[in-house]
Specification:
Number of strands: 5
CATH class: Alpha Beta
Number of domains: 1
CATH architecture: Roll
Shape: elongated
Distance between the termini: 22 Å
Number of helices: 1
Strand content: 15-25%
Length: 89
């Protein structure tokens, strides 16, 4: 018995850049006067040094969304699969 295909697959779009004056942004904290003055500045103090071996991975994890054609409910894949290229047929 051949089952009907009830799911359509789509890749999720990447989100935009974070705004400069959002709640937890560094620019907003600086604007409010946090991390100014003497003494321990806490989370607004100096940041840890950059690691020596840093680079870009050659493949990205894809985020698949499965949408039911009958009810329209969308299910998100639990963990992304690392792939260089994604192809839908």
């Amino acid at each position: 018995m051949k089952l009907p295909k009830i799911n359509s697959v789509a890749m999720a779009k990447r989100g935009g850049k974070r705004g400069s004056l959002k709640r937890g942004s560094i620019a907003r904290a600086r604007y409010r006067g946090k991390g100014r003055g003497f003494g321990n500045l806490g989370r607004y103090g100096s940041k840890p040094t950059k690691p020596k071996m840093s680079g870009v991975k050659s493949s990205k994890k894809i985020d698949l969304r499965f949408k039911c054609k009958i009810c329209g409910k969308t299910h998100v894949q639990k963990a992304g699969i690392r792939a260089k290229r994604t192809e839908f047929k």
